[in-house]
C-alpha cells in the first residue's frame, strides 16, 4: 500500500488533468462512507462501489444494496464507500482520499470492489484480499445502435487488465468470464445477482391492475428501462408490438421508467408479459425478477438470458428483429402466468447468492494467507 504522501501526490497529478466539477457538490457528497449498523459479525467487509441508490437515482445499484443486506442477514458486517461517479469524475478522487482515511483506522477481512470503474481507483493498492465484481458493460462493453462505443471498448480493455490485481473476481455470466484474461479465470466465480423472492412474487392480476388504474381489457407488454438508453433498444419492442397488434388489437406497450421501485412488483403482476429487447447485458436483474413474479418473458439472447429461459415454460428468447420478437410476444401473452419461471429462479434467492459470495471471500482470504506463507527452503 502506498504511503499517505505518495497517494496525495498521485491524486494531485491526476486531478490536474480533470475539468472542474460541474455539479457543485462538495467532496463529502461525492464520496461517502457508511458504517454497518451491525456491531459484530463473522466477517467484516468493505464495499467500494460507484453504484448505489440515492435520491437522484433510486434504481442505481439496487442489486448491490440487496447483496449488502443479504450478507448482513448472513452475519457478515458490511461497511460501504459509495462513489457518485455519475455526477463528476472528481468523485473518484474524492473517494481515494476517503478510502485511504478509512483503511488507516479500520481492518477488513476483504475489500469487495463493485464495477470496473471503482476498481480503477482502488484495485491495485487496497490491502489484500480484494475481490472485484464486474457488472456487464465494464467487461464486455456497452453496445449502442452502431456497436460498442470507442470509449466503452477502451474502458473494457483497461478493466479486464485491472482484474489481474484482484485476489478473486466475480462475473455475472460465462460471457463476462470469457472476457477476462485467461490467467484470471481460474480465480473467477460466476454468480448472478440474487433475487428477492419475497418482494417479487405473483399477486392476482385484477387486483394489481386496479391498484395501478390499468384497464382489465388490454393485453399489456411491460418494458422496464430507460427508453432513451440505446442499449435498451426500446424501438424493437415498439416495432414488435405494432406488428403483433394485427393479431391482438388490444395489445399495448407500457414503458415504465422513473417509477418508484416499490411499484415494479405490482406492474409485473399486472402485465401480460415482459419485453426485454436489450442489445447487451451481463445478467439482467429485471429478467430474473420477472421470473420470480411468474411473468411471461420475451427477451433477446444477451448475457445469461438463454441460460435462464431455455426450457422454461412462458420464457421466450427471440432474435433482435421485429417479426420474430412479435411472434414471441403473441406466444407469451397466451400464458396467464409462468409458475415454472419462478421455480427455475429459486436457486438465485438472495440468501443462496450471499452464501456463494461468502465462499468467494473465504477463497480470497485463504489464497492471501497461502501467498504470505514463507516457502520451504527460502
Q: Mind sketching the topology for me?
A:
Layout: H1 4-15, H2 27-30, E1 31-34, E2 43-49, H3 62-73, E3 76-83, H4 90-105, E4 110-114, H5 116-119, E5 130-133, H6 137-140, E6 143-144, E7 147-148, H7 150-162, E8 168-171, H8 174-179, H9 182-185, E9 188-190, H10 205-212, E10 219-224, H11 234-244, E11 251-256, H12 264-270, E12 273-276, H13 285-292, E13 297-299, H14 305-309, E14 315-317, H15 322-332, H16 339-345, H17 350-372
Parallel strand pairs: 2-3, 2-4, 4-5, 5-8, 8-9, 10-11, 10-12, 12-13, 13-14
Antiparallel strand pairs: 1-3, 6-7
Helix pairs in contact: 1-4, 3-17, 10-12, 11-15, 13-16
List keywords for this structure.
five-stranded parallel sheet; elongated; disordered N terminus; Rossmann fold; seven-stranded mixed sheet; about 40% helix; single chain; about 375 residues; 2 domains; alpha/beta
Characterize the structure shown.
By secondary structure, this protein is of the alpha/beta class. It has 2 domains: 4-190, Rossmann fold (3-Layer(aba) Sandwich), CATH 3.40.50; 205-347, Rossmann fold (3-Layer(aba) Sandwich), CATH 3.40.50. The protein is 41% helix and 16% strand. The chain is built from 17 helices and 14 strands. The protein has helices spanning 4-15, 27-30, 62-73, 90-105, 116-119, 137-140, 150-162, 174-179, 182-185, 205-212, 234-244, 264-270, 285-292, 305-309, 322-332, 339-345, 350-372; strands at 31-34, 43-49, 76-83, 110-114, 130-133, 143-144, 147-148, 168-171, 188-190, 219-224, 251-256, 273-276, 297-299, 315-317. The strands form 3 sheets. The protein has a 7-stranded mixed β-sheet. α1 runs antiparallel to α4 and α11 packs across α15. The longest helix has 23 residues, at 350-372.
Amino acid at each position: 500500500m502506498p504511503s499517505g504522501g505518495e497517494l496525495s501526490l498521485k491524486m494531485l497529478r491526476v486531478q490536474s488533468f480533470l475539468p472542474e466539477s460541474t455539479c457543485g457538490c462538495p467532496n463529502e457528497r461525492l464520496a461517502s462512507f457508511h458504517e454497518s449498523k451491525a456491531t459484530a459479525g463473522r466477517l467484516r467487509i468493505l464495499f467500494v462501489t460507484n453504484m448505489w441508490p440515492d435520491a437522484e437515482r433510486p434504481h442505481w445499484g439496487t442489486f448491490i444494496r440487496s447483496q449488502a443486506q443479504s450478507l448482513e442477514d448472513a452475519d457478515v458486517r458490511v461497511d460501504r464507500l459509495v462513489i457518485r461517479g455519475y455526477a463528476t469524475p472528481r468523485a473518484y478522487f474524492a473517494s481515494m482520499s476517503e478510502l485511504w482515511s478509512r483503511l488507516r483506522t479500520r481492518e477488513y477481512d476483504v475489500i469487495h470492489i463493485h464495477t470496473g470503474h471503482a476498481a480503477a481507483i482502488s484495485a491495485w493498492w487496497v490491502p489484500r484480499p480484494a475481490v472485484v465484481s464486474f457488472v456487464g458493460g465494464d467487461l464486455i462493453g456497452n453496445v449502442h445502435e452502431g456497436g460498442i462505443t470507442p470509449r466503452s471498448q477502451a474502458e473494457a480493455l483497461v478493466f479486464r487488465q485491472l482484474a489481474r490485481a484482484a485476489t478473486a473476481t466475480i462475473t455475472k455470466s460465462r460471457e463476462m468470464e470469457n472476457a477476462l484474461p485467461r490467467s484470471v479465470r481460474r480465480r473467477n466465480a460466476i454468480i448472478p445477482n440474487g433475487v428477492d423472492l419475497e418482494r417479487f412474487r405473483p399477486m392476482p392480476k385484477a387486483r394489481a391492475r386496479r391498484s395501478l388504474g390499468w384497464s382489465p381489457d388490454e393485453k399489456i407488454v411491460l418494458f422496464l428501462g430507460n427508453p432513451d438508453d440505446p442499449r435498451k433498444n426500446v424501438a424493437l419492442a415498439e416495432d414488435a408490438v405494432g406488428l403483433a397488434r394485427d393479431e391482438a388489437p388490444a395489445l399495448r406497450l407500457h414503458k415504465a421508467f422513473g417509477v418508484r421501485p416499490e411499484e415494479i412488483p405490482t406492474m409485473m403482476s399486472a402485465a401480460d408479459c415482459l419485453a426485454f429487447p436489450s442489445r447487451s447485458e451481463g445478467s439482467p436483474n429485471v429478467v430474473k425478477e420477472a421470473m420470480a413474479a411468474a411473468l411471461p418473458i420475451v427477451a433477446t439472447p444477451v448475457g445469461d438470458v438463454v441460460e435462464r429461459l431455455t426450457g422454461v415454460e412462458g420464457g421466450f428468447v427471440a432474435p433482435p428483429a421485429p417479426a420474430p420478437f412479435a411472434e414471441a410476444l403473441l406466444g407469451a401473452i397466451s400464458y396467464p402466468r409462468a409458475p415454472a419461471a419462478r421455480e427455475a429462479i429459486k436457486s438465485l434467492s438472495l440468501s443462496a447468492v450471499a452464501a456463494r459470495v461468502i465462499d468467494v471471500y473465504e477463497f480470497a482470504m485463504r489464497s492471501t494467507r497461502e501467498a504470505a506463507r514463507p516457502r520451504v527452503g527460502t
